[in-house]
């Protein structure tokens, strides 16, 4: 042992590490994982993009520039 110290493994940590290393074999798409994937893969990025575009538009108005058209941001959205 290192420095004469005894090693005592943590059962819960070992289980978590095993599941993390082998998640490809244990992962299943179900209602909960599909909902999580849709929220974090589609809705959150869309809302972040819309917020960023609205900030660009606000800065354009503040600077007296004409509004720019961004991907999916045509029209008068506020």
Automatic annotation (TrEMBL):
PANTHER family: OS01G0750800 PROTEIN (PTHR35479:SF4), UNNAMED PRODUCT (PTHR35479). Keywords: Membrane, Transmembrane, Transmembrane helix. The chain crosses the membrane at residues 37-58. The lineage of its organism: Eukaryota, Viridiplantae, Streptophyta, Embryophyta, Tracheophyta. This is NADH dehydrogenase [ubiquinone] 1 beta subcomplex subunit 4. The keyword Membrane applies. It comes from the Eukaryota. It comes from Selaginella moellendorffii. GO terms for cellular component: respiratory chain complex I.
